[in-house]
Amino acid sequence: MEGYIGQQWIASSLYDRISTRPFLSLVDKKWIAFQLPRALRDARNRKIPHGDIKSENILVTSWN
């Protein structure tokens, strides 16, 4: 039996995004602050452990 997993290519971490220009706007910062706790809650509810949460390990899908 063969199986495949498809996954979106994500080239940037949150660390990359916050340390390069143009810097995040206030709206972008608020959006991340809104999404991040929910993502962590959802992972916890699904019993998906992480153990190393830091900006380098948080992937972002777009810069705008």
Describe, in plain words, how this protein is organized in 3D.
- Strands 1-2 form a two-stranded antiparallel sheet.
- The chain is globular.
- The protein starts with 11 loop residues before the first strand and ends with a strand.
- The longest helix is centred in the middle third of the chain and has 20 residues, at 26-45.
- The model has no long low-confidence stretch (mean pLDDT 86).
- The relative contact order is 0.24.
- It has a domain at 19-60.
- It is mostly helical.
- Helix content is 39%, strand content 6%.
Structure class? mainly alpha
Principal-axis shape equals globular
Oligomer: single chain
Question: What order do the helices and strands follow?
Answer: EHHE
On the 0-100 scale, what is the average pLDDT?
Answer: 86
Number of strands: 2
Assess the beta-strand content as a share of residues.
5-15%
Specify the helix fraction band: 25-40%
Low-confidence stretches: none
Biggest sheet strand order reads: 1-2
| Main beta-sheet annotation | 2 strands, antiparallel
The Rg value, from CA coordinates, equals 14 Å
Number of helices, where a helix is a run of at least 4 consecutive DSSP H or I residues: 2
* Distance N to C terminus: 41 Å
